[in-house]
C-alpha cells in the first residue's frame, strides 16, 4: 500500500484525551512523525464530552494530574479538592498549549478503519475526512468511558422535549429552571448531577433500576498549604501512588481486616473515613473487596447512613443497595445526593422489576404510571472499555477484524496488545488496571512502556511486534483468576460488560493492582519483551 503520495507516519494515535496527548509528547521526544486524530473539536477526551451538571473527578485533583513534568505539576493551581469538569478541560488545554501539541492533532476527524498490511508491516488508516495514510504503529488512546450508550427504550424518539445524555452533553449551558425533568439511571453521573438538577428544576423524577453506594465527597476549595503539602513531596507521593497503591491513589493504607475490630471500634473507623469523604472509604479495611462478611460491615454502615439522611423511610429503603457488595460496582462520590431526596420537588421511582415501560411525547411511563416531564436526562452510562475501539473497523492479519476476535470478550496481552494485530497498541485497554485505578497513573505507565518499546524496536531494526498467543492466553487466564479472588464479579457491573445487552460477561480490568502490574510490564520489557514476537526484514524468523 505504499502508493506514491500516500502520507506516511511513524505513529498514528487515535484520540486526544489524556492518553493521546501524552503519547504524542513522548513519541515526539523520540523524533518520530506522529499524527493524532480526534473526533471532538478540542482536547480532553472523556472530559471534553462529559459536561453534565456537577461533573467532576472522583480522584482528588492533586493526584488526578500528569506527573511527567515537574514544572507542570508545580505551576498548575487546582482550585478544589475534586476538580470540576471545566477545570480539568482547562488543564487539558493548558497541557496542549504548553507542550505545543496542537500542530500534530487533527480535530473533528474520526479514524474509521485501520488495516494491517502484512507485507509492508504497516497500518493503512482511513479517516472520516476520506483520507488514507500509512503508519508503522497505531495507538488506540480511545478511552474507557467515552462511548456514551443510548438505551434502547420504547418510544424514546417520540419524546417532544429535549433529551440529554450525561456522557454527550451539549457545549452550551443547559438551564432546567422551571422545568419538570426526568433522570434515568443512578450511577456516578446521575449521582453527581441529580443534586444540581434538583436545585434548578421545578420537579425532578429519578428512575432507579439499581441503587448504588455513594460516599460524600467533602469537596472544598484547596488552600495554598494543602497544595504545597503535595508539591513539596510530589516525587515521593507519585512514586508511592505508582508502586505501592493498588489503585494508583496515594492514601493511608489499612493494616487490618474489618473483622479484626469489635463493633464500636469498626464503626468509629468507618465514621472517620465517612467524615473524610471520597473513594478511600472502602480502604478502611484491607479485606472489604475480598471477604463478604467484612464487606457487609461496610455496606451496613452506608445503608445506616442513608437511613439517617433520608427522611421518608420508604425512599431511604429504595436508596439502600442490597443486591451487590459495596465496591463491586464502581463506588460513587457525591455532594448531597441522598439528602436531595428530602426536597419536596424530587421523586424517586423504583423501576427494578419492570424497567422503563415506555417514553411518551411528554412523559416517562414506569411502574404502571405516567410521569410528566419537559426534559429527559439519560445517565445510562457507556459501552465501557471496548465500545470506542469496536466502532473502528480494525483488520489485522489474515483479514480478521478485532470485533471478530473480541466477539466473545476482549483478549489482550497485558492490556497493551492483542495477538493477530501487530504494531497496534492500546492505552488502558481491557486486561490492564485502567478503570480500577487513577487513570492518569495508568495512562502514564502505558505511554512510557509503549515509548520504550518503540525505541527498542527502532534501535534494533525491528519493524513489527506482536503478542504471542500463548502469552495472551496465559494473561487472560491470570486476569480472570485474580478477578475471581475478589467480590467484584458478584455485581452486574460495566466492569463485566453487564450493562450492554448481548455483551459477553468478562471481567475486563486487571485487578492485581497498578504496582504489581507495572512490575510485570517492566519485567516483560527487561526480558527482551517476553511473550511478544518481533520481526524485521533482516530477522523475519522471530515472529
Ligand atoms: P453507569 O455507572 O453505567 O450508570 C448507568 C446507570 O443507568 C445505572 O444506574 C444503570 O442501571 C442505569 N441504566 C442503564 N440503562 C438503563 C435502562 N435502559 N433503563 C433504566 N436504567 C438504566 O454510568 P455513569 O455514567 O453513571 O458512570 C460511569 C463511570 O464514569 C463511573 O463508574 C465512574 O467511573 C465514572 P443498572 O445499574 O444497570 O441497573
TrEMBL record:
Q: Which SUPFAM superfamilies match?
A: FAD/NAD(P)-binding domain
Q: Which residues form a coiled coil?
A: none
Q: Which domain of life is it from?
A: Bacteria
GO terms (molecular function) for this protein are: monooxygenase activity
Which Pfam family is one of those matched by this entry?
A: Pyr_redox_3
Q: Which UniProt keywords apply?
A: FAD, Flavoprotein, Monooxygenase, NADP, Oxidoreductase
Cofactor(s) needed for function: FAD
Query: Where does the sequence pass through the membrane?
Result: none
> Into which family does the record put it?
Belongs to the FAD-binding monooxygenase family.
Q: What name is this protein filed under?
A: Cyclohexanone monooxygenase
Species assigned in the record: Bradyrhizobium canariense
Amino acid at each position: 500500500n505504499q502508493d506514491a503520495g500516500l502520507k506516511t507516519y511513524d505513529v498514528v494515535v487515535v484520540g486526544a484525551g489524556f492518553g493521546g496527548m501524552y503519547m504524542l509528547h513522548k513519541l515526539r521526544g523520540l523524533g518520530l512523525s506522529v499524527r493524532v486524530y480526534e473526533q471532538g473539536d478540542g482536547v480532553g477526551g472523556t472530559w471534553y464530552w462529559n459536561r453534565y451538571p456537577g461533573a467532576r473527578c472522583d480522584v482528588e485533583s492533586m493526584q488526578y494530574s500528569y506527573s511527567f513534568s515537574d514544572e507542570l505539576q508545580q505551576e498548575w493551581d487546582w482550585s478544589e479538592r475534586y476538580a470540576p469538569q471545566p477545570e480539568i478541560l482547562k488543564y487539558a488545554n493548558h497541557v496542549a498549549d504548553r507542550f505545543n501539541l496542537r500542530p500534530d492533532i487533527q480535530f473533528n476527524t474520526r479514524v474509521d478503519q485501520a488495516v494491517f498490511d502484512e507485507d509492508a508491516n504497516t497500518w493503512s488508516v482511513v479517516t472520516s475526512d476520506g483520507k488514507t495514510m500509512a503508519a508503522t504503529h497505531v495507538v488506540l488512546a480511545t478511552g474507557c468511558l467515552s462511548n456514551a450508550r443510548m438505551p434502547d427504550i420504547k418510544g424514546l424518539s417520540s419524546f417532544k422535549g429535549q433529551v440529554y445524555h450525561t456522557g454527550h452533553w451539549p457545549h452550551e449551558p443547559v438551564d432546567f429552571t422551571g422545568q419538570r425533568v426526568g433522570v434515568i439511571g443512578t450511577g456516578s453521573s446521575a449521582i453527581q448531577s441529580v443534586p444540581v438538577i434538583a436545585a434548578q428544576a421545578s420537579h425532578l423524577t429519578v428512575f432507579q433500576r439499581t441503587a448504588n453506594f455513594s460516599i460524600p465527597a467533602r469537596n472544598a476549595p484547596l488552600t495554598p498549604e494543602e497544595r504545597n503539602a503535595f508539591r513539596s513531596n510530589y516525587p515521593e507521593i507519585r512514586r508511592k501512588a505508582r508502586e505501592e497503591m493498588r489503585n494508583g491513589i496515594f492514601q493511608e493504607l489499612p493494616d487490618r481486616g474489618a473483622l479484626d475490630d469489635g463493633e464500636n471500634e469498626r464503626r468509629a473507623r468507618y465514621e472517620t473515613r465517612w467524615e473524610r469523604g471520597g473513594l478511600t472509604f472502602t480502604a478502611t479495611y484491607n479485606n472489604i473487596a475480598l471477604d463478604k462478611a467484612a464487606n457487609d460491615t461496610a455496606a451496613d454502615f452506608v445503608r445506616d447512613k442513608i437511613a439517617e439522611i433520608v427522611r421518608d423511610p420508604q425512599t431511604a429503603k429504595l436508596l439502600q443497595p442490597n443486591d451487590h457488595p459495596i465496591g463491586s460496582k464502581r463506588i460513587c462520590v457525591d455532594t448531597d445526593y441522598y439528602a436531595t431526596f428530602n426536597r419536596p420537588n424530587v421523586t424517586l421511582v423504583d423501576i427494578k422489576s419492570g424497567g422503563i415501560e415506555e417514553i411518551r411525547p411528554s412523559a416517562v411511563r414506569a411502574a404502571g404510571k405516567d410521569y410528566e416531564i419537559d426534559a429527559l436526562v439519560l445517565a445510562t452510562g457507556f459501552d465501557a472499555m471496548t465500545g470506542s475501539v469496536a466502532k473502528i473497523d480494525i483488520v489485522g492479519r489474515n483479514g480478521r477484524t478485532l470485533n471478530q476476535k473480541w466477539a466473545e470478550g476482549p483478549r489482550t496481552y497485558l492490556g497493551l496488545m492483542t495477538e493477530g494485530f501487530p504494531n497496534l497498541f492500546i492505552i488502558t485497554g481491557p486486561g490492564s488496571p485502567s478503570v480500577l485505578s487513577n487513570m492518569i497513573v495508568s495512562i502514564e505507565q502505558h505511554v512510557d512502556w509503549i515509548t520504550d518499546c518503540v525505541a527498542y524496536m527502532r534501535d534494533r531494526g525491528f519493524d513489527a511486534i506482536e503478542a504471542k498467543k500463548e502469552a495472551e492466553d496465559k494473561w487472560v487466564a491470570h486476569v480472570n483468576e485474580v478477578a475471581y479472588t475478589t467480590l467484584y464479579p458478584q455485581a452486574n457491573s460495566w466492569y463485566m460488560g453487564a450493562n450492554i445487552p448481548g455483551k459477553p460477561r468478562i471481567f475486563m480490568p486487571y485487578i492485581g493492582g497498578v504496582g504489581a502490574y507495572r512490575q510485570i510490564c517492566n519485567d516483560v520489557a527487561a526480558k527482551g519483551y517476553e511473550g511478544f514476537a518481533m520481526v524485521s526484514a533482516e530477522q523475519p524468523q522471530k515472529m
